[in-house]
Design a protein that fits this description.
It is built from 13 helices and 15 strands. It has 362 residues and is α/β, with parallel strands linked by helices. The strands form three sheets. Strands 1-3-2-4-5-6-7 form a seven-stranded mixed beta sheet. It has a six-stranded parallel beta sheet with strand order 12-9-8-13-14-15, sandwiched between helices.
Amino acid sequence: MKLYYFCMQKSEMKIYYYHTQDAEHIISEWKRGRYPSHLLYGVTCFAENGIDVVMHQHRQENNRLIRMLRVAWQVMRCREHYDVLYGTSHRGLELLIMLRALGIYRHPICIWHHQPIVKASGWLRERVARLYYRGIDQMFMFSDTIMEMSKQSVKARPERMHMVHWGADIDYYDRFISEHPTERSGFVSSGMERRDMPTLISAFNNTSLPLRIFSIRSYLGNDYEKIIGAIERRENIAVTFNDRLIIDELTTEVNRSACVVICCQPTNYTTGLTTVVEALALGVPIICTRNPQMPMDIEAEGCGILVDYGDVAGWESAIRYIAEHPEAAKKMGERGRGLAERIYNIRQCTREMSLVLKRMAK
């Protein structure tokens, strides 16, 4: 196991840090300025809050059963002292969480819960799930709406849930803007999760305004290459497919755009949030599907326009407004940047998490 110190601060506690991705590789990319640290959920900022980190040694494993067995074995064999196991997701930690529920694994577990807690299908699954949730000592959630939805489940304990303001790595985007000065123009779609391409492309077909779509070929059951390929689109719409999304290249595209468009399918979680917080940090105005699970109301905050699910006419109206009112759009971007600086940034998020983690260690 490796112990990481990102700045010299007096340590008050130590966490075992578990991420579903290769965090050590991501940290090396972050140090080179090629990756924003908010996708590491606080690991680069914990030391500023008096928390040391024991890093889980990531090993890619697609088989879910083998992954949870391997992770449990690695964690149980850790000889470094730590106070709390902190996970950016439950995926891979399922066995450890169940062992915690049974009193076999003794360390408190705190995870990010990305979706609302809901009733399981079937009596037996629900009974197992109730036992499972006893093994999660604390949960971080992305919005008050998700937390309130979770409270409707008998598995949820309100005192174990905490809404924290997850947000962007401001330093990364400041450095990026400084190193890549550019004139902003056109619209960009850069996200990959549950995107509603038929609605978005139909709206831009009707406006003839320039749109650049950067998409992964397939993600979470959506074959975007097939979906987009089946839609007639005009010359104002350019599409680029990749096998994976390269963060710094996408940041370049968002930074040179006059507006970010986030057109999503209905879900019960914060679809599009990563793209939103990036746009806020870059000071780019947003047009976004009206997702009630989002932690912020970009329209009420004055940094963007919300459109209902599947509303082609609504999208067309919002697109034209941004194009025809550049000064108003610029003000939206400035207000978005202010919101990121005040609330939705990774340092603020980590401060909020650290208060919970330190209470768990006592």
